[in-house]
Amino acid sequence: MVKLRLKRCGRKQRAVYQIVAIDVRSRREGRDLRKVGFYDPIKKQTYSNVPSILYFLEKGAQPTRTVYDISNKAEVFKELQISKTKSNF
Predict the structure, then answer these.
(1) For the chain, how many structural domains are there in total?
(2) N or C: which end of the chain has fewer CB within 10 A?
(3) Domain of 18?
(4) Cβ atoms 48, 37 nearer than 8 A
């Protein structure tokens, strides 16, 4: 199973995170399938590659609670609902 979760990088006391699609059995710093975003909690900056996130969500990937909250603030899930309604017609 694939999850969308945070991968820690940066230096001590100055952590930044990459949002990655990764196998559930991998470690936090393990090998990821694809990088789909970036999150800096200190500067409150977020970058999300929305098409990649939507691709993995449509394939059944589950976001962690933190990634879900970050994506929800970026309104990624509205894009997912819009694409589902387009495919129903």
Answers:
(1) 1
(2) C
(3) 2-88
(4) yes
Predicted confidence at residue 14, as pLDDT, reads 92
Measured from the Cβ of residue 51, the count of other Cβ atoms closer than 10 Å reads 9
CA distance 46 to 50: 12
CATH number for position 84:
3.30.1320.10
The pLDDT tens digits of the residues spanning 5-37 come to 999 998 999 999 999 999 988 877 778 899 999
Q: Indicate the Cα dihedral angle 10, 62, 60, 30, nearest 10°.
A: 40
Which residues have C-beta within 8 Å of that of residue 3, sequence separation ≥ 6? 21, 22, 23, 24, 61, 62, 63, 64
Residues ≥6 apart with Cβ < 8 Å to 70: 19, 37, 39, 46, 48
